[in-house]
Amino acid sequence: MKVLPPGITVFERGWLSSNNILLEDKHQTLLIDSGYCTHSAQTVALVQSKLGARSLDVLVNTHLHSDHCGGNAALQASYPWLKIYIPPGNASSVQAWDKQSLTYEATGQSCPPFSFSKSLEIGSQFEAAKLRWEILAAPGHDPDSVIVFNTQQGILISADALWENGFGVVFPEIEGDSAFDEVQHTLDLIKSLDANCVIPGHGQPFYDVTTAVARAQSRLNFFRENPIKHALYAAKVLLKFKLLELHQTSFQQLHEWSQQTRYFQMLHAKYWASLTTDAWVRMLITELEKAGAATVQQDLISDLT
Ligand SMILES: [Zn+2]
To answer: Model pTM?
Structure first.
């Protein structure tokens, strides 16, 4: 299978916004993940362009990172009858809009509040795009993340648990909670599914799943042996995300942001305490420059995508 079945549309976004996967059949329209808040008008426009006069019935979030549910509020405003289903374990945080446990404070990212209809149940199934989908637990990148699998066609909606080239930062590790074992369990689960196609949270759908899983496995092994490399990856991802959001910024502005961003502070304290925060941010920006992800002119830092 190299083509997705009819009824499945993948809106491939970038790294600031996750992909949005639209599943349609005559019974209902269902979207998986809604992108980052600064792109929410585009998310609504993409959904509307495909659905036309039809309404969006259900929105499922694989996890509640800001780049996966930042468009929830805008979609809710556009589709008043929209039902939002969130991963298990997040209900009280969303009800209270607890930015700390939802990690928006820790990551220095934004997410407009939204309301939800119910929590997803691990092992439960739903029908969409004339296919049956199962909700599976996929802790690691996020402790509550789910992935969605269709057995008949072997299609896996993998969120940030598996990308064509790696997987998302293992955020609980930054908090000091060991989570590499969870990443391993999730990779083992994905391997056992023997999927034909993966629709990841970021990047295009891919079909060589075996190679992607092997790549993710060796990346996990590398991070286990070199936790500082995972910390560096996490710091660069957080900084690059901010650059993607701001397009252009200054060292002063980044310094202020880093002071308010708990994960960033934790990474600094644990691995780079010998450097001032300022020197550390400059070191990270130099790394991004070397990777072609940013340019610096005097005090001005610009995103390069
Ligand atoms: Zn994520």
So the answer is: 0.95
